[in-house]
Write a structure and sequence with these properties.
Keywords: Kinase, Transferase. By secondary structure, the chain is α+β, with helices and mostly antiparallel strands. Strand 8 and strand 9 form a beta hairpin.
């Protein structure tokens, strides 16, 4: 078997280029940060990566990953919404376009670039109800007003951190397939909690300690899950739209 893994079906004309830039940016977070899959070749039609051999998830690897993820986030980003170094323009999350536009506050960035565009898209195709759309709109205004802003600096986040992109190997956890940008560290943690992950409690406890999360952070996990829920409402149906509405109702 080859020691490389080749991807040849990009989500868009520049999807592999922005993915490679994101991988490089995350890898540059430093020696204590999360391990990132190695990029061996990239062009618009082809991305060649190091092939990973999965291993059974373990508590020690999970704990080390939680600490390393906090170090990745602590490496920082110039602003919320900024693209990874070496890239200008927008990106993707899964198959969906995702804007990457620098913004001074997290609340405005999250409302304008992560909630409203996907709420509109889901509403337009009938996967988000009128009442749900109104809930999202009201929450977006609260976000833009700064209700949920805090004093944490922009983090260097993976951006699509569900369990399928967290690969346990013999050398520990390695991350793949990012939608990397400047954001809030809780967004990565919230994605893991939304879809589940092996040894999630161990990862979470290690991250929370290393990142020095303030008390009450768990109450905000749902807020950070709204973006992936709305993306899935666009791509996977109205059930996710209903779930997004239920979560948004907790923050009105």
């Amino acid at each position: 078997m080859s020691d490389s893994f080749v991807k040849t079906h990009p989500s868009g004309p520049d999807a592999y280029l922005v993915e490679a830039a994101g991988l490089a940016w995350l890898a540059a977070a430093g020696p204590t940060a999360a391990r990132i899959v190695e990029v061996r070749e990239v062009n618009p039609a082809r991305l060649v990566l190091q092939r990973l051999t999965p291993a059974a998830p373990g508590r020690r690897a999970a704990r080390e990953f939680g600490v390393a993820l906090a170090a990745t986030h602590a490496a920082g980003a110039p602003t919320y919404g900024c693209p990874p170094d070496g890239w200008s323009g927008d990106g993707y999350i899964g198959t969906q376009p995702m804007s990457l536009r620098p913004t001074s506050t997290w609340g405005r960035f999250y409302a304008e670039q992560r909630l409203l565009p996907y709420a509109e898209a889901a509403y337009r195709i009938g996967n988000l109800s009128t009442a749900a759309r109104q809930l999202i709109d009201r929450l977006a205004q609260r976000l833009m007003d700064g209700v949920y802003d805090d004093d944490r600096l922009p983090a260097r986040i993976h951006g699509d951190l569900w369990a399928g992109n967290v690969i346990f190997t013999e050398r520990g956890v390695v991350l793949i397939d990012p939608a990397a940008h400047g954001g809030h560290g809780l967004t990565d943690l919230a994605m893991l909690h939304l879809f589940g992950a092996p040894e999630l409690r161990t990862i979470t406890d290690a991250y929370a300690t290393a990142a020095r999360l303030p008390s009450g952070w768990r109450e905000l996990i749902g807020l950070h899950q709204l973006h992936p829920l709305l993306v899935h409402a666009v791509t996977h149906g109205s059930g996710y739209g209903a779930e997004a509405a239920a979560v948004a109702a907790r923050y009105r």
